[in-house]
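My current task is to audit a protein record that another person submitted. My question to you is simply how this chain folds and whether the tokens agree. This is what I was given:
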Amino acid sequence: MTISLPNPASASSEEVKPTKKILCYGSPYLAEFYDIWIGLWDDTAFYSECLSQIASHTPPSEPVVVLDIGAGTGRITHALASNLPQHIANVRLLGLDMERHMLERAATLTDPAHADKISWVLGSACDLESVPAFRDEGLRADMMVFACGSICHLNVPGQAEQLFRGIASVLRPKTGKAYISVLKGGSSDNGVPDQMMTKPPPAEFRSRDFKDIIYRDTTTVLEVVDDIWHNTRHIVVSRVLEDGSERVVEDNIAEVKAKIWTEGELRRIAKAAGLRVVDIVDRHNDCRDELIFVFEVDV
């Protein structure tokens, strides 16, 4: 399903002042806040190079199909579209996310020159078989990306198993590759690092898209219970008025529960689903280091 939305500026006409608990970025304001917050990741060149290599093995008569799981506002999907090598003429880029406001922002940020290559799909990482390109068109994915350690959000027992079974079901055998990022802070093989247990200072960001909007982000809870990292953030969206005072537009409590994975767990779950690890890439990012597990269908 392709998502299209009105201009994000319309959000300013729907100002409310709730205090609500959220699990993801469930408003136009929070979708933009995510863009600002995630901007320090520098992994797009890596994934663009991976796509170039994978495309050389795709049958010329078939499209190169890329699935960006947890695509958010389209950071990686947009970068892949912008950096496509000339020899990749037939490509389908699928951006999958469970949050409508993120996909709506992704659609508004799409370069019109790339629009015919990109589809924004509302759906779950735990139900990849339901993506229309796979379910209705019978396509297979040549490349899958689950970036920024987002697998940590699959913290409910059974969710990771659903993800890997879905990957094994829709990934092209022999040549397709799935890139699953795990934050080094989200892997318990070497213990929980100090950076995961150190509260960041309160942060303030000015909106780039909404006039006179300010975002304030304060971490209130940071703890590990068993193998789950609990991170609670107070994210307040305020509008600066003409007299310099502020009016709260949104008052959000963002509760994140992140599973701390071990390499052994990932290998075991993947193997049971019919996948095998072919590489582990140790990458340094400006904001957080990661391990990228590369999977293939085990044939």
